[in-house]
Amino acid sequence: MSALIVSPVLVPFVAAILCLLTRRSRRIQRVTNLVGAVALALCGGGLVALVTTSGVQSVQIGGWDAPVGVSFVVDRLSAGMVLITGIVALAIALYSVPMIDKRRELFGYYAMVNTLLMGVCGAFLTGDIFNLYVWFEVMLMSSFVLLALGGERPQLEGSIKYVTLNLLSSAIFLSAIGILYGLVGTLNMADLAVRVVQLDDSAKGMVSTLAVMFLVAFGIKAGVFPLFFWLPASYHTPPAPISALFAALLTKVGLYVILRVFTLIFVLDVPTTHTLILAAAGSSLIVGGLGAIAQNVLRRQLSFLIISSIGFALIGPGLMIGLGDRAYVDASAEVQAVVLLGLAGSIFYLFHTVLVKASLFILAGSIERWKGTDEIGRLGGLALERPWLSVMWAIAAFSLAGVPPLSGVFPKLALIGASFRGEHYGIAIVALVCSVLVLYAIARVWLEVFWKPSPDGEGGASERSRATASPAPAIVLSILIVAMGLGAGPVFSYCREAALGLLDPSDYIERVGVLDPGLDETEAQP
Amino acid sequence: MNSPILQTTTRLMLPLLLMFSVIVLLRGHNEPGGGFIGGLIAASGLALHAMAFNPRETLALLHVNLETLLGVGLAMALLSGLIPLAMGEPFLQAMWHEFDIPLLGKLKVGTPLLFDVGVYIVVASITMIMVLTLAEE
Predict the structure, then answer these.
(1) A148 CB near a chain B CB, below 8 Å?
(2) How far apart are CA A47 and CA A38, in angstroms?
(3) Does residue A216 belong to any structural domain of this protein?
(4) What residue in B sits closest to A10 (Cα-Cα)?
(5) Minimal C-alpha gap between A61 and chain B (Å)
(6) Residue B47 pLDDT > 60
């Protein structure tokens, strides 16, 4: 079991080392990468099975007990994220084979993809806030290389914005960790949750300031308004598999961390911090929706759709303002129901949006290869030329727009329903307006790219480029999007349990093995 | 650069620096030192060589591909975590074994040493990759 919990980090690490050692052979690297992705998905499945049968599990790295050592903790949220990461990794591994050119393959592309996955999984699993920073850096270093790999002009331009903003975010993140450690004296997240409550009032005020610093740092990584502008500037520049990987996973790690720390640690001043989250959610929804309408390049439009979906996923933690000064367990039944529904909706939305964004970016890459361009105005006629690709696009895009019975409608319903029930009419209306904007953007793409007759006749791309335009790797994702919609009941109850685990972290804290401050230390020692 | 003074000094300094880096590596577990700083010292010696002579000669001196070396270093660090995992202990748990060597006394060897040697190799090789790449420009 201890091995299973660390396996999502070890599997990509082993794959990265093997890819590095066999970097002369493209074939061995491709196979290693593929096997690694399958193994990662299996590990994710194993973790989901583990947490559903026996609850939160933790392991102390190096045998140093919490809160001294680094703990790895897996709960329903992190297990679900690891599973989805594995599935996306598999789709990207298949997609990389035709799409990544020889030069990038020989220059360590596969090793970097695997270190990126290692960083992502590490961030999902760690129970230590400084260790979280380390995993963020592992992830970012790999993403810097992947973004700049190949050194094409637009790539470098995008990379500069991406690197600058992310370094700024890391600096804020690291300073906030330093101050938090100075204030509380611990880095273990479960221990922080216990000790932050016990601080005196002036120190608690400081914690609220720190909470905002963390929110800015994670907000930059998650791409929320007004910290998002690096995202549409960089995500469309690298080759399609790399932007699909980034779009599916990187901003979602930021979101995951916001969900984690703003339910576990920073719940002292919910009216301030979570109102900020709700405001960020609302403005991201509007800016993302409007931006998506204004764009004429396919992958840039998708980048803005990422921002609007980040807004959606942030509604859940934002709705925690309903709790006011009380802890979740002390709140009234009605407030509990609203907060739980909202957070469960956010978690569902998070799972769904990873699959949808991976799928859309993969398909957009295939369209670009098929037509030789990704300007929406110059595309057309794909519904007749590539019916299967069109079907898969329709599944992903209309799921994003919230068309039943695909996966997107259920979390949206939960989030908007929770906003109305909690009498947060403002955010509910913003979310509805954004849904219409997203629907408009998607319908426009559908009409222009798929239904309109092709303006250039049979397209301008060469036969060789067309041969690599297979959308097949997105099949797994499409099937899962449909399955998540049809099987929304079980998925939603899983997300509900996950949300409950976040809102009432006593089980999480206990399973990490942090000493209960109520007990004498000698008694609590096993 | 083609300076006989620097070249002569480098011929003397390189073995000293490499030996010093190993000493720093080995004393690292309980005293200041360790794989990271040891690796940097080794790399500084090799970088000096690259500057005094030229990068191609330094590569020839090493006999191994730097990227391969990097992979080997990472694999060693990983292995030090996997050994305890295979024995049913938590990942990266330190495991020690004492050897009795006649006349010399006891030698205590453990997975942290393996980890540190791995770090040493990784740091030395990645630094050399960077230095030599920049030197080529």
Answers:
(1) no
(2) 14
(3) yes
(4) B78
(5) 5
(6) yes
Q: Does B75 touch chain A (CB under 8 A)?
A: yes
Nearest to A20 among B71, B89, B92 (CB): B71
* Burial grade of A103 (CB within 10 A; 0-12, 13-18, 19 or more): exposed
The parent domain of residue A412 ranges over 151-510
Whether this prediction's pTM lies above 0.90 is answered by yes
> How would you class A38 by CB atoms within 10 Å of its CB: exposed for 0-12, middle for 13-18, buried for 19 or more?
middle
Q: Is B134 on the interface with A (CB under 8 A)?
A: no
Q: Is B92 on the interface with A (CB under 8 A)?
A: yes
Say how far residue A153 (Cα) sits from the centre of its chain. 28
CB contact under 8 A, A23 and B67: yes
**A457: confidence class by pLDDT, cuts 50, 70, 90:** low
Question: What is the Cβ-side half-sphere exposure of residue A373, based on CA atoms within 13 angstroms?
Answer: 15
pLDDT at A230: 83
As a whole-number percent, the residues of chain B with pLDDT over 90 amount to 49
Q: Bin A404: left if φ > 0, else alpha if -120 < ψ < 50, else beta.
A: beta
Rounded CA-CA distance B49/B51 in Å is 5
pLDDT score at A130: 95
By the CB < 8 Å criterion, does B79 face chain A? no
ipTM at complex level = 0.90
Residue A258's nearest CA partner among A400, A123, A88 is A123
Contact residues, A window 444-503, toward B, CB-based 8 Å cutoff:
none
The residue written with tokens 């069109």 in the block is A390
Following DSSP, what letter does each residue of A383-401 receive, concatenated?
HHH-HHHHHHHHHHHHHHH
Mutate to test the interface with A, among B64, B74, B91 (most CBs of A within 10 A): B91
Instruction: Supply A142's token pair.
Output: 């790999």
Q: Are A92 and A473 in contact (CB under 8 A)?
A: yes
Query: Distance (Å) from the C-alpha of residue A20 to the closest C-alpha of chain B?
Result: 6
Residue A271 CB neighbour total at 10 angstroms: 11
Within a domain: residue A439? Answer: yes
Q: Report the distance separating Cα A387 and Cα A433, nearest Å.
A: 31
Facing residues of B110 across strands? Answer: B96
Q: Which residue has the tokens 């001294």?
A: A68
CA dist A187 and A128 (Å) reads: 6
pLDDT in tens, A392-407: 999 999 999 888 888 8
Interface of A with B in 228-247 (CB under 8 A): none
Look at residues A74, A104, A96, A99 and name the one whose alpha carbon lies nearest to residue A5: A74
Contact B90 A14 (CB under 8 A): no
pLDDT digits (tens, 9 = 90+) for A297-321: 888 889 999 999 999 999 999 998 8
Q: Which of A54, A43, A38, A33 is nearest to A7 (CA)?
A: A43
In this structure, what is the dihedral angle of CA atoms B126, B129, B135, B137, given to the nearest 10 degrees? -120
Tell me the residue type at A309: S
Residues of A in contact with B70 (CB under 8 A): 20
CB-neighbour burial class of residue B91 (10 A; exposed 0-12, middle 13-18, buried 19+): buried
CB distance from A62 to chain B under 8 Å? Answer: yes
Contact B91 A13 (CB under 8 A): no
Is A6–B85 a contact, with Cβ atoms under 8 angstroms apart?
yes
Count of domains observed in chain A = 1
